[in-house]
Amino acid sequence: MTVTWPDGKYALPEAVTLAGDTCPKTAFTWDFGMLYQFTDKPAANTCSKGNHLTNYCGNESVRSYYCVKSTPKASSSSWSWMPGVYCIYKVGTTCPDGFTGGNIRWNDVSRGVDPDYNTMPAGTYTGGPTEIEYCCREDGSAANPIILPAESSFYLMKFHGACQTVLGMTVTEESLEWATKEANPITWQDGAHPKPGNTGHNVKIYYCFYQPETAAKRDLGPLAKDAGKVKKELEEVRELVNLLENQLDHGKRVALENKETEAEDRSVESEEEELREDDKETEDEDRGVEFEEEELREDDMAGEDEDKKFEEMVRAMDLVLLLREMRKV
């Protein structure tokens, strides 16, 4: 019986090998996804040397790629993942049978510099901190082999301890660590997830890269005698691509910083304009108070004039009355 990939929706890290494989060879088609992250501190991202991840691990950004199985049952054969100690990415709302869900969250410097696209693992990629959801299990021993298709290379993620043994495959432990905004690692991850996850300053994930035990001979074929040379040339090409992407990301970071500076300058100018308007309103209010005080002074003066007129009228009437009395005499 041909071994197929287990039932359920899930995703795996995308791998790259000399044979040109990225996602595992299957009768069905894996969906493809990519996550772009603008990381916190330049030169703080670390990829294990010689890793086989289809990713870009630069000084200022990280790109990660995924093989996504969106169809729960992709073949007539029906079977489940075997017991062990390992993790996969969650797709949809539930994990495959036997797995427990969890997540890791972190703050990116900026979202939306490059789009995340196609089919992604379950999580949150816009509008706030990034969150990726995982499905992990610990119901067996990592030393007891599980059975998975052994025709091509693939990745699982290490839960903790050692990489899970897979029948007919060699395994190499690799890692990826990227810089994030500082956060509390206790509150920024939940449930079952690859360890250590969010460390408070970075996120670190350990990956398990599996190759068929005869992969080198089968992949290289007649080029086996020149394997070292081919590998070196491929690594040189990869370094060149990384250098070019790093230059591109640096340009994007500078543009983003300039944009943020311009926004801050506009914000300062807006605040200064508001202060000037507040000062003008205060001056207007002061002038209004002065005007009211002037009106009050004028009213007081008018009142004093009326009092004087009244006193003069009283004196005049008194004089008239006095004259009348004198005439009577």
UniProtKB/TrEMBL annotation:
InterPro entries, per the entry: ApeC (IPR031569)
Region (Disordered): 254-309
Compositional bias per record (Acidic residues), positions renumbered to this chain: 270-305
Lineage: superkingdom: Eukaryota
Biased composition range(s): Basic and acidic residues: 254-269
Domain Apextrin C-terminal: 5-210
Protein name stated in the entry: Apextrin C-terminal domain-containing protein
Upper lineage: Eukaryota, Metazoa, Echinodermata, Eleutherozoa, Echinozoa
